[in-house]
Structure formats: C-alpha cells, structure tokens
Amino acid sequence: MTVKLTASALAIAAVSATAAAARDNVQVAGSSTVLPYASIVAEAFGENTDFPTPVVESGGSSAGLKRFCEGVGENTIDVANASRAIRSSEVEACAENGVTDIIEVRIGYDGIVFASQQDGPAFTAFEPADIYNAIGNQVLVDGELQDNAYNSWAEFNSDLPDVEIAMFIPGTKHGTREVFEDKVLLEGCESTGAMEAMMEAGMSEDDAEDACLDVRTDGKSVDIDGDYTETLARIDANTNGIGVFGLAFYENNTDKLKVATMSGVTPNTETISTGEYPVSRPLFFYVKKAHIGVIPGLKEYAQFFVADEIAGPNGPLSNYGLVADPELAETQAAVANEETMGEGM
Amino acid sequence: MTDASMQGGAAAPSRKSSIHTIDARTKKRNAAEARFKAYGLAAILVGLFFLVVLAVSIVRNGLPAFTETTVDLEFVLTEEQYQEAEGTLFKTAAYTDFFIAGLREQLVEDGVEVAFDEDAIERILGKVGGNLREFYRANEDKLGEPVSFTMSASSRVDGYMNGRVTRDGLEDSRFLMATDLDLVDVLRDAGIITQSFNWNFITGADSGVDNPGGAGIGASVVGSFFMMIVVLVLSLPIGVAASIYLEEFAPQNRFTDLIEVNISNLAAVPSIVFGILGLAVFIQFMHLPQSAPLVGGLVLTLMTLPTIIISTRASLKSVPPSIRDAALGVGASKMQAVFHHVLPLAMPGILTGTIIGLAQALGETAPLLLIGMVGFVARGYPDGFVGGFTEANSAMPAQIYTWAARADVSFYEKAWGGIIILLLFLLTMNIIAIILRRRFERRW
C-alpha cells in the first residue's frame, strides 16, 4: 500500500510540475439558483470577448462561499455565487484565511412562486397565512395554540379546495428556504395570530420567531434537497401537491404547472420588480479583489455580468426570468471602482 | 426403492410402484422441482421486464436529442454591419438582430401571409449570434456575400416539431406564443425550418441554460477520455505490480493479511469518500488545478485500484501451479517463471478486470461533484494534449447530471440522449472485455 501511494505521488508530482502554469480562466462556484444566470453570462462572455469562457460550478450558496473563503491563490475560486447575502460569520471566516477585500455585486431579484399541477385542484390564490396554517408546526385553532392537525386546505380556508395538504418546500441547504421562511412562514405566523399566542404563552420574541419557522413533521410538508426538477417530479406524481419554485423555472414549465397568486398578486418580472409580489430575494455574486489583475478577465467578467445589455431589463438574463435590479447603475459603478464590502455601504 | 416394492408385492398395493404410475412422494418432488424452475423463470422474466422498461424509456426519452430543428437562410452581412456589431459590448446580440432582420426580409420577399408580431422571429430562433460571430471572424472575406446558414431553432419550436409541445401547452408561455406556431407551420412548409440529425449534440460542448440547441456532449466525452487515460496509466501498472507481488512473492504473514483485508474493504468504500479525499489531498494540499480531468482521473484511480488488484489476483491464482513448477523445474528464476509464463496466461483475466474497472469509473459521478466537475464546466475542447489533463472539463455522467437539473425540458431530453451515448461506451467496453476473454482465455 505504502509503496503504491509513493508511486502514485511521484506520478502526480511529475504531472503537476507542468500543470502549475497560470490559470487563465475565471473560476466561479456557488448557488444553484444563480448558476443558470451565471452560465448564460459565462457563455456570452466567452463568445463576446477574447477571454476564455469562465467555469461555473454549482453546489449551493453556503458551499460556494465556504470555498471562496478558503484563501487567496490560483487554486481557490475567484467568484462565489449566492442566493442570499454573505453572513457576517462567513466574512470573518474569509478574513481569517486572508480573504479581506470582497466586492459584493447584486445582479437582480429572483421571484419565488407557488405552483401546482396544471390539471390539479384550483390552487390559484394563497395568503401567507394559508401556507402557515398548512405546514406550520403549531397553529392557532379557535384561539388555542395546538399541534397542526389540519388534513385539508378547506379546513382553515373555505375558498381553497378540499384536498389533502401536500407541500414540497426547499430543504435547509437552499438559500430559497431562508426567503420562504422570512417572507411566507413568519408573515403567516404573525397574521394568523399564532406568534402572538406563542409570546403570550411565555416565549420571548426570538423564540417565538424560531418556533414560527418550524414546519410540521408528519409528512404533509416535504423538504426537497435536490433541484427544482425534483420538486417538479413530485408535483407530477401528486395531483394535490404544491411546490415552491423559482420564477424562471416556472416560466420554463408553464405547460405542466399553474402558478398561484400570493396576497392577490400574480408573480411575474413586473410585479416582482415593483415589490408588489412579496416573495422575492436579491441574488449576488462575490468577487475576490485580490484576484483582479492576477486572473485575466475577472474584472471584465464582473463588469460584463452587470452591464445593461446583459443584466438590464431587456437583456438575456431578464429574458430568462431574472428580475432586473432598478439600481443596476450603482452596482456597475461599484464594480468599476472595485468597491469592497464596507467601503461603499 | 425397487427392492422395497418387490418385497411388498401384491400384499401392499398402496406401496406398489412402477415407472408407469408415479407415487405421491415422487409427485411431490417433481412438483417442487417444477415450482423451483418456475420461480427461477419468473425471476428472470421480472429482471428482463425491468431491463426492457429501462431500455425503452431511455431510447424513447433520449432519441429526440439526436434530431435538431434548424432554420435555413441565405444571409448577407455587410462590412458596415460587421463593424457596427463589433463595436458593441454584447456583440452576439447585435449579430442576432441582423439575422432576425434578414429572416424577416426573406419572409416579406416570399410573401408569407401570416400575421406575426415583432418578436415572433426572435422567439422562433435559437441563439444564433455566437455561431455567426465565430463564422465572420474567421471568414472576413465572406462579408457582403450571401452565405447560407443552418441555425438551430428555439427549443420549443424543436419540441413542437417533435410533438412534445402542443398549442394548448403554450397558453401561459412567454418563450413561444401559440400564435407563433402559425408562422412555424408556414416556415416548415416553405422548407426554411427543417429537421436533421443533430451532429452538434455529439461533437459540441455545453451551453448556457438559454441555449439548449447549442448543447453537446462532445467536450465532456473528451473530458472522460482524458480521465480514463489517467486511470489506465496509473491503475494498471500499480494494480498489476501490487497483485503480482502479493500473489507470487510476498510472504504469508500477518502484515500481508492486513493488506489483503484492507484492499477488499477499499473496494467497498462508497465513491463519494474518494471525492472528499481528492478534494482535500489533490486540490487543497497538492494544489492541482480545480475541475481538471487530471484530478478526476486520480480520484477514480483510487477507486479503480482495488477492483483491478482483486481481479488480477484472481486470474493469477487461476493459472495452475504446474505451469510455475514446470518453469522452475527447467531452471527458470522465480521472476522468469512469473513474467514469461504466469503473467501471459493471466493476461486475458487482467485485461477484462481492468476494462470492467474502467467502465465502472467511466460512469461514476459522485466523486466528481466534489472536485468541481459539475456545473457549466465543459465549455469547449481543451487546448492540446497537456491541456486535456489540466484545463477545466466535465465528464459524461457529470454532464448528464447537470443537464437533468436544468429548467428547460430540452435539456432533460439531452440528459437522456447523453445516457444513450454513455451506455454505448459502456457496452463497447464490455464487449471488448468479452472478446478478449473469449479469444485468449485458456482452459485447463
């Protein structure tokens, strides 16, 4: 065994001597929500400039930021895609490894929609309260806080179909889960009065907020850790199923899915950009400033990404389903000036 | 039995038996055998049934990936238009606009009598800008001359031609309107929209998510190929040398026993573990390039080694001791006996084991997830032979995994198509293994 390992180590060393030449392509990793947009930009960047096409890996926001914070150097990634803002703990982890100057770039907004089978029951209008009542762990029934025992949507809202509750929500490794919790579960928890009841029962506000985010564990709510395609497959197999999707994914599959309104607003790029549709979140990527000038094309890639022609309202990203950022001009300026986090904010 | 029945005679008719009448116990035994045969047959039939279901669904889902819908147009790009497009930031979009204008002119010239709105042509066409720019940058002398182009149509037009997309299904779609299909029908009748074999799927590289027509598996086939070279070059000599030493030279003691047990255990370790090891050792510690087939190959080598060692040792063992004894008897050294006599006889078995180990490595995705070969990675062919090892590339199973997760259904079709190609490679490798075994195997 040891003999073998030494032999392979020698072979590796021989090849790596030639492989250590400078990397000439931008290396990106992170959120699977940002991946589609990043792949569109990467392809266009390769076609429109003389730089090689960047490599965009998937793996999730947290995994991407973790690799981003591993250090500075050619064998670390240059850009991390994230479907949420970087956390202060991650900034600290970065700083510990010498990654101090980080440029934050907001590329636009992503809408999160609730959709069910095209031929299924009429799930066409939701309030956050409905979702909370359906999958919250503790709900308010006749003024009493109790474990969620609802079986059918009609039991708490007679406007909804009388069919079994079956929700497919993003798993905790997804950035989407955070938005879903903040904008739907918490909202619903407050509006149904469950949160107030929890606080009256002696919980502190923070504890009550945490309790609001608990979902029932009796199988009516299923965490999906895979991609939206997995959610789609689950919905395909379950007439009563309701899934949580990104707007772009839904728009690509309108023949199979019908979308529900949230608080009376239909999700589309317009209602999301005006803020009328409540469930949306910004998408980001983070650039390692220390790599600018070392990795060819890195700054150009970032600038190309947020250019009006690409991320603007008529660009290919918005055409695919990204909601253009109304403050794109500021982002462009920040990228051009290489403003790091903490400087321009 | 015969004795017993003869002794019983006519006095005990119940125990009398003949070969013409079958007694109850024989019946029972025969029935048990018939039942067992039926179980076996049923098991085979169930297995066959699943195999057929699998094969049919793969072929049915994957075949559409091999046809493409194209828009054929004779198109002129003037020198001014070229300069104008090259002057913009998003050059390929400018090329696309010129192509759309060209197609619109062609339609007016042909007197197409279908009402279509401004953006209908844009929705029908796939992404053409990249190909146009590439062509004109390489052939500047063709500027101002008519050139006939065959450009891919959008994925939904392709789906319509394949019967996947229907008018009803387009009701809420923003990417292709139901009314656009009238125009598609006219273009098809005019011979502008045609279907043909999708060579680009076999030779092309991965594309952005909004460009399913441009996606191909070729680049990741190359990635897989370079990974297999690494696996073969490292695992065959190391594996064979290790097995020969363990089988022929190593003393039988506690230490070699320990090694043997470890090798057997290593063969059962889930492949994702090798991926984590690869990330920690090869990328973070040894600083090898990320997403490179070299690293992928090294990780898969670790995974394949135990398989090769086990099969090599089995085939060395199956060479009869008389061969060794004869060689030693005529005065050959131990090493001569092994290399001149045992190894050649064991070679078919070793090669078979190696090929099957390679086939297993070829279909492996899990370790590649961790070393960055999943995502938008297989963007083009590598630059030269060394580049094939060090430049970021994907592998076939990783590419299939990536496509299956994309929103556009066309990519899902491509994933199935990719499975067909991958299976063809595996089938070929297994057939080679079988032929080698049939041809060179010696029986004693």
Quick description:
The complex is a heterodimer of chains A (345) and B (444). Chain A has 345 residues and is α/β, with parallel strands linked by helices.
**Approximate shape of chain B:** extended
* Percent range for β-strand residues of chain B: 5-15%
Q: Indicate the mean pLDDT of chain B.
A: 88
Largest interface: A-B, 62 and 68 residues
Total helices of chain B: the number is: 19
N- and C-termini, Cα separation of chain A: 55 Å
User: Largest sheet of chain B, described in full?
Assistant: 3 strands, antiparallel
Helix content of chain B: 55-70%
Overall helicity of chain A: 40-55%
State the CATH topology of the largest domain in chain B.
Answer: MetI-like fold
**DSSP strand tally of chain A:** 13
Describe the largest sheet of chain A: 9 strands, mixed
How much of the residues of chain A is beta strand, in percent?
15-25%
- What's the order of the H and E elements of chain A? HEHEHEHEEHEEEHHHEHEHEEHEHHHH
Structural class of chain B: mainly alpha
CATH C-level of the largest domain in chain A: Alpha Beta
Contiguous low-pLDDT stretches of chain B (5 residues minimum) are 1-12
Supply the number of structural domains of chain A. 2
Describe this structure in words.
The complex is a heterodimer of chains A (345) and B (444). Chain A is of the alpha/beta class and 345 residues long. Chain A has two domains: 142 residues, Periplasmic binding protein-like II (D-Maltodextrin-Binding Protein, domain 2, 3-Layer(aba) Sandwich); 170 residues, Periplasmic binding protein-like II (D-Maltodextrin-Binding Protein, domain 2), CATH 3.40.190. In chain A, 40% of the residues lie in helices and 19% in strands. Chain A has 15 helices and 13 strands. In chain A, strands 1, 2, 3, 4, 8, 9, 10, 11 and 13 form a nine-stranded mixed sheet that branches. In chain A, strand 1, helix 2 and strand 2 form a beta-alpha-beta unit. In chain A, helix 5 crosses helix 6 and helix 12 runs antiparallel to helix 15. The longest helix of chain A is centred in the first third of the chain and has 18 residues. Chain B has 19 helices and four strands. Chain B has three domains: 62 residues; 148 residues, no CATH class; 223 residues, MetI-like (MetI-like fold), CATH 1.10.3720.10. With 444 residues, chain B is mostly helical. In chain B, strands 2-1-3 form a three-stranded antiparallel sheet. At the A-B interface, helix 1, helix 2, strand 2, helix 10 and helix 14 of A face helix 4, helix 6, helix 10, helix 11 and helix 12 of B.
